[in-house]
Amino acid sequence: MAHTLPITAEPPTVQVGVNDTGIGPGGPPQGGGRDGGGGSGRAPGAVPQRAYFTGLTMGLAAILMFFMALVSAFIVRKGLSNDWRAFALPPILYLNTLILLVSSATIQMARGKLAREDLSGFRRWWAVTGVLGLLFVGGQLVAWRQLVHEGVYLATNPSSSFFYVLTAAHGVHLLGGIIVLAVIGLKNWKKARMTRSTATEMATIYWHFMDVLWIFLFLLLKLGQ
Predict the structure, then answer these.
(1) What CATH fold (topology level) applies to the domain 51-79+91-223?
(2) pLDDT tens-digit profile of 54-64?
């Protein structure tokens, strides 16, 4: 009777290679995201989107603190002095306020066109916003000329001094916004680290901030007369 030897089969072994980074052969998970979302798929050196908005928030906070310091000085100077002399605000300031309100509507329309990927519509309304901003600044210069024609100068009275300082400070900041609008409208975004949508969002926030700030300053100047 023949004897047969039992055959034993060893279970196959699976070897998982580990590279020098400690990550398996599949490599790290690929992350996506726009402009700096939290994944590793963004371009090297790209700035996360939240960093842009954090910087914008800090910048707006600094601007707000600057103007609140001026407003506090305005209120204290008016309340503690007997030499405050009121003067009539130039009527063109009402038109300037309306222009700035309309510009907030047009920049929102441009933002909406970009969200729908209508670039021609975006550029059109974006340009209209810039033109309205320039009209506002030009209107402020006209207001200054009207005051000068009436003999109201920077050093005429504390009330006129604050008027020139507050309107000039706001005008300079709005001019900065107009420059940003021009850069966004003319920039080639194919090689930019920031996307056009992120830049548009940030510029829109800044523009609305300047709009609300002007309304507050205008009411302050009007009630302070």
Answers:
(1) Four Helix Bundle (Hemerythrin (Met), subunit A) (1.20.120)
(2) 999 999 999 99
